[in-house]
Design brief:
Elements (H helix, E strand, L loop, with lengths): L27 H6 L8 H5 L5 H4 L1 H52 L3 H14 L4 H16 L5 H20 L3 H14 L5 H21 L3 H14 L4 H18 L5 H14 L6 H17 L4 H14 L3 H16 L13 E10 L6 E7 L11 E6 L2 E2 L3 E2 L5 E4 L7 E6 L7 E4 L4 E9 L2
Parallel strand pairs: 2-9
Antiparallel strand pairs: 1-9, 2-6, 3-4, 3-5, 3-7, 7-8
């Protein structure tokens, strides 16, 4: 289906548009697809052999535990989506009431065109704002019944409003500028067209930036959209709209789809790392995703997510989690039925020696061919977190060495010149770890 707000194509079962964060209503057929199955007839239950209750007790218990875990995961995801929707609804409701009050002020001042615009925006933000809807109808009827001013009066009024807008622009009152210039456009569309358009674009753009600073992101995006309607090719406005949209989309997935959060915030982080709290939120999303896959027993994937979190912000907490996941990944058996391809070099730990010096910490190893002969001049890489050592090169005996390591952590050793699986190796003070790489037969 397609989003009613921005027109983007989304999944039939989506609750929130990933492009603009608009709340969606799934199609009837999508709801039907996830409807719970009907209970089986009682007669079918009675026909089941009585002996099943004895031999399948553990299977039933295991099935119940798996079912409870799945229900918990689904419940947490649904709660995350619900909380995200509730927060956006609260913000939109508050913004709607703010524009409703501004509309009342414009009515008191006799600015009925501006009042109508404020009431219309209030209804757009919150369709349940009945007071704004009633006032919008009243002001619209009032404007329709007002006599049309003469061309001279329209011109004089437009000129006065334009001059007021310029004064407000110098004071940085972007909302005031927008209000005055929209009145000018309503009275006399051709009055100082280029100057009015330029001032409006600037006011929409700078007003949008102000709303971003206040974390009123949906309103900011609307301001950027209005600026782009007047200047479709304005690159600075396009950039700001894209960043605000990525931020809103990323937070829309928060707690429900960590990969969705990461995809959007990572793109935003690459554009502008210091955009609001993007750095912290991206780090937290990687950390949360790592915790999720860690608790499913996917140690290697958890290690990679923790590595990504550390590449954004370094913290001792995440370092500890990464170390634990890396050690579990290193000792976990490979998935059944998926051996490395033939010819792929696979490492193994040969031994760990105590070198007798507390300040020493080393990793050394051999690179051998299929017959056990040493391979010289093979480059070997060593890395941990976002750090990597200069490559080492094997000598004529196929030996490489990384001495003088400074942190007791789990390092990743990888052959650079050959097809090889990366090998995690734990280093510690006063220890020398020996490893060996050979090709898979």
């Amino acid at each position: 289906m397609y989003c009613n707000e921005c027109g983007a194509k989304v999944e039939d079962t989506s609750l929130v548009c990933p492009n603009c964060s608009q709340q969606l209503s799934p199609r009837p057929e999508a709801r039907a697809a996830v409807a719970p199955a009907a209970d089986p007839p009682e007669s079918a239950t009675k026909q089941a052999p009585e002996r099943r209750s004895r031999g399948c007790g553990w299977a039933v218990i295991a099935g119940m535990l798996v079912g409870c875990a799945l229900l918990l995961i689904i419940g947490l995801a649904a709660l995350g989506v619900y909380q995200g929707i509730q927060e956006r609804t609260r913000l939109n409701t508050a913004a709607s009431m703010e524009h409703y009050q501004k509309g009342l002020q414009q009515v008191s001042a006799g600015n009925y065109e501006l009042a109508r615009a404020e009431f219309a925006l209030a209804v757009q933000l919150d369709s349940k704002n009945r007071e704004a809807a009633v006032k919008l109808s009243e002001v619209s009827v009032l404007l329709e019944n007002q006599p049309t001013p003469t061309s001279v009066l329209r011109h004089q009024t437009a000129m006065s409003l334009y001059n007021e807008a310029r004064d407000l622009y110098n004071k940085g009152d972007w909302e005031g500028v927008i209000s005055k210039l929209e009145q000018v456009q309503a009275l006399e569309p051709e009055y100082e067209l280029e100057q009015v358009t330029s001032l409006l674009v600037e006011a929409y753009y700078k007003g949008g930036l102000k709303l971003v600073d206040e974390t009123r992101m949906e309103e900011a995006i609307r301001y950027f959209d209005r600026a782009l309607q007047l200047r479709p090719g304005a690159q600075d406005v396009l950039q700001q709209k894209r960043m605000a949209s990525l931020y809103v989309a990323g937070l829309g997935y928060w707690g429900a789809n960590w990969q969705g959060v990461i995809d959007n915030l990572r793109a935003l982080y690459e554009l502008k790392p210091d955009y609001k709290d993007t750095r912290q939120r991206l780090h937290d999303a990687y950390l949360a995703f790592g915790d999720v896959v860690y608790h499913t027993g996917n140690w290697c994937s958890a290690r990679d997510r923790y590595d990504s979190a550390l590449a954004v912000i370094v913290s001792d907490e995440v370092k500890t989690k990464r170390e634990d996941a890396a050690q579990r990944c290193a000792t976990a058996p490979p998935p059944a039925g998926t051996p490395p391809p033939k010819g792929t070099y696979v490492g193994k730990l040969l031994k760990v020696e105590d070198v007798g010096r507390k300040e020493a910490m080393m990793i050394r190893g051999y690179v051998l061919d299929g017959q056990g002969k040493p391979l010289p001049n093979i480059k070997v890489g060593l890395s941990a977190f976002d750090w990597s050592a200069p490559p080492a090169t094997t000598n004529n005996e196929g030996v490489f060495a990384f001495d003088g390591l400074g942190n007791p952590v789990t390092y990743t050793v990888k052959l650079i010149d050959l097809p090889a699986l990366p090998m995690p190796v734990r280093a510690d003070w006063s220890k020398l770890a020996w490893v060996e790489f050979r090709p898979q037969p």
